[in-house]
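seq:
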Amino acid sequence: MEAPKLPAPQIYDPQGGAGTAGRVRLRTLVYIRWAAVAGQLASLLVVHYGLGFPLPFAWALAAVAVSALLNIAVSASRPLGTYIEDRPAALYLAYDIAQLSVLLYLAGGLQNPFSVLILAPVIVSASVLSRRSTIGLGALSALSITVLALWHQPFPWRGAGFPLPELYVMGIWEALALGIVFIAAYVGSVAQEARQMSNALAATQMALAREQRLSALGGLAAAAAHELGSPLATIAVAAKEMQRAVKKGSALAEDVDLLIEQSDRCREILAALSRRPDTDPGEPFARLPISALVEASGEPYVGGHIALAFHRQPLDDSEAFEPNVARSPEILHGLGTIIENAVQFAKTRVDVGTSWDALSVTVTVRDDGPGFSGAVRDRLGEPYVSSRDDEGHMGLGVFIASTLLDHTGAALSFSNEEAGGAMVAIRWNRATIEAERHGTAT
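struct:
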């Protein structure tokens, strides 16, 4: 059964900018700001009334009140459960940086120990927003700490207080600046990799679901053919009886001939449907030789400008018989993707070999193309790894194939041939692949 062509999955672009689908709920940002408002208000009350430190309390309280009012307005404007796009989320966090900078300006600038909180919006952005937004927010934070290092109100202190040395303040500035760069690079890279893996796994599930639906459709077709076979045979018998009873050349004879002709055609259609294997172990063709399954995986790519040859033989002259395996959607799609990539990279020829012994089953896919580059070969099987500049080659495809084949118990290896070209080897434990069912094959 031919592996279906899957549509490109709709996934989040971690490099995207404006208009990129959001990855953060509005509720999350609103709750974070409410926590910030509560913490700022508590700090102001403790410093001003509890410790008695001089502070421009009215201005600071106004800055906190503006954040609270803005949060209320945002909450009332749209449901909190909605995901927001990249740019609005970045602007939301940019305001938080500006508001915190105002409070720090009123309370000593970088001499205030709470200045470290300027990193918080950058951390949030690096975790859930695009790299472009994170760079923008990091630049805004760097500008804010630079301004705060040079201009700020005196640090609130009981009595005359004491000024911190400029060298120490510059050290704080440097630490915060390095923290912004480190967070934007490190946290952003880790979060981007996690997003890519999540998107790739979603694409894998889509591929498997399509294969399983196609397999179920084949089973439905076989069942329909089986159920319709008996009444069709009865119709054919009755039509032939009528053919013998009517006179040749009459109008009724022509109708009977047409009825027999169409019943024969229906029989051919049902026979073709019956040849589409079901995955029910009790149905015919539910299990077939491994070489036949391999050929079925590569059948869509036969007949093109690249010669595709299939070979089968036991390993080391083994007398073990060829294993019969369940017709698995995972194997069909996984092998089909590996063969498709080989055809895309090959110059003239792709050879697909199937071999087995008493303990294992191995399928090798060789092409006469340029082979795997060193940088790509060590990372094949990871999502979004491509040896081509254009999309759709050796990226999600190999990851999906590796994931599906791994689900059946296969081990994949990628190498280059000494004479040139690439080779992919897929190996199963024979007992595993011969099991009546494995994984989610239905």
